[in-house]
Structures are given as C-alpha cells and as structure tokens.
Design goal:
Strand content: 15-25%
Distance between the termini: 23 Å
Oligomer: single chain
Pfam families: DUF2252
Number of strands: 8
Structural class: alpha+beta
Organism: Streptomyces avermitilis
Number of domains: 2
Protein name: DUF2252 domain-containing protein
Number of helices: 6
Largest sheet: 6 strands, antiparallel
InterPro entries: DUF2252
Length: 246
C-alpha cells in the first residue's frame, strides 16, 4: 500500500490506488478538515498526528460500497517515526436496510447524514471505539472516516477442517466479538438513547438465558440462508452487468 520515497512514506502506485487531479485532491482535503472537527478532544492531543503526507483515490471496497468513490489519506501518526504513520479512509456512508422501518422523526432528525449516524452509533456501542473514527461531507454526501488497521488480516481457514477445531475457533471468535461489544460507552456524548444500552441488554438476556441461546441459533440459521440467497442474487446481477458502475 505504501513505500518510502526520498526518506518519506508515500502511497505506492498500483494496487487499486488512483492518483487524484488537483481539484479532487482539494475537495478531499477540505472534507478532511471537516472531519477533524468531529473528533473528540482526546484524539487531538498531538496536532502533528494529522499532518497529511499523501492522498489517493480507491475503488469502492465491499459490496455495499461497490462503484462508489473512496479515498485513502496517509497521516503522520502519533510520532515522527515512519512506522507510526497512519492510513485512514473516507468513503460514502450507506443507508442501512433497517432504516426504512424507522418512522420516529426524532431518530431520523437526530443525525446529519449516514456518516454521522454510523460514527455516533459505534461510539455509543463500544467503550473503545477507533480513536480515528469521524465523519465529514464530500460533494453533499455524508462520509465515514476511520483508520485502516495495519493489524487487520483475514483468518486462514486452510488448515482448519476438523469439526472440533472449527467449533473451538468459532467459540474464540465469539468471545472476542462479545468482549468488544459488551461494554457500551455511557460517556459518548450522544443524547438519543438516555440509558445504558449494555445494562438494558444484560437485563433482557438475564430474563431468559436459556431461551436466548435458542434464539441465537435460530437467527444464525435464518441469517445464513438469507445471506446465501442474497449472494446468489448479487452474483447473478454482477455477471449480467446489471449493477451500474461495475
């Protein structure tokens, strides 16, 4: 993704990166300035951390962002050491499918746009959300901004083919996911939900712990079937050239 040129880190050409023209670069950097205003004060302790070193465009990553412009920004990071440089992405936040069922105007009007909604929700639901998480606007559309973690790698399932090993790995992943979401942030600053979500969830589960396990199993099977069906629909549309921009 990056390389060292003239004793400074820059984005490497190729690999899906797109060089920006001057006008687009200016717009992205203006959006970046707006993003800085959405960060908590604790994230702004070292202003040099946000010194921009390089900017490139990217093709939309993921099914939900397919065909949409996305941008990567290389930042100084928490120190002058090159190994501490940080890469963040700016991409258009998408409207969730469940939003069509939200009819409460107080909820709809609370958020400026989908980028704002995504960030506020994540900060409220996780006590240790990404410190680089923020939002901005670009060309009138809400954008989500977050760090591209250098530690995020796909799990290699190639050597895991025994049912007992699979069960053990899934159990570990489940515990890790649960730990990440177990503690909500009551100090996130949002006022839409005036109570502790983690306490409310704990109380609901405690009321019927045995039934909760069965509920999760049923949900997993139903969700898996829905995901497979949705994937087939996507493949059919993609192969027949029916997705604009692809």
């Amino acid at each position: 993704m990056t390389e060292i040129r003239d004793f400074e880190r820059r984005f490497a050409p190729g690999g899906g990166s797109i060089e920006l023209d001057a006008a687009t670069r200016y717009k992205v950097l203006a959006a970046f300035d707006g993003y800085l205003e959405t960060l908590p004060e604790s994230s702004l302790a070292r202003p040099d951390s946000y010194r921009v070193k390089d900017v490139v465009g990217r093709r939309g990553i993921g099914i939900g962002s397919a065909g949409l412009p996305s941008y990567n920004i290389l930042l100084e990071g928490h120190s002058d050491a090159l190994e501490n440089d940080v890469v963040i992405y700016i991409k258009q936040a998408q409207t969730p499918a469940v939003s069509r069922h939200i009819t409460d105007s107080s909820i709809r009007d609370y958020f400026q746009h989908e980028g704002h909604r995504t960030v506020i929700s994540q900060r409220a639901l996780q006590a240790h959300a990404d410190p680089w998480l923020g939002w901005t606007e670009l060309d009138g559309a809400g954008q989500l901004v977050a760090e591209i973690s250098p530690y995020a790698v796909d799990l290699d399932w190639g050597d895991i083919d025994d049912p007992e090993e699979i069960a053990a790995v899934v159990a570990d992943l489940g515990r890790a996911t649960a730990a990440m979401h177990a503690a909500a942030d009551d100090l996130s600053g949002q006022s839409l939900v005036p109570f502790s979500t983690e306490r409310a969830i704990d109380a609901a589960v405690a009321a019927d712990e045995d039934g909760f396990a069965g509920l999760l199993v049923d949900f997993a099977h139903e969700y898996g079937a829905r995901a497979r069906a949705d994937h087939q629909i996507f493949v059919d549309l993609f192969r027949n050239g029916r997705i604009p921009g692809l």
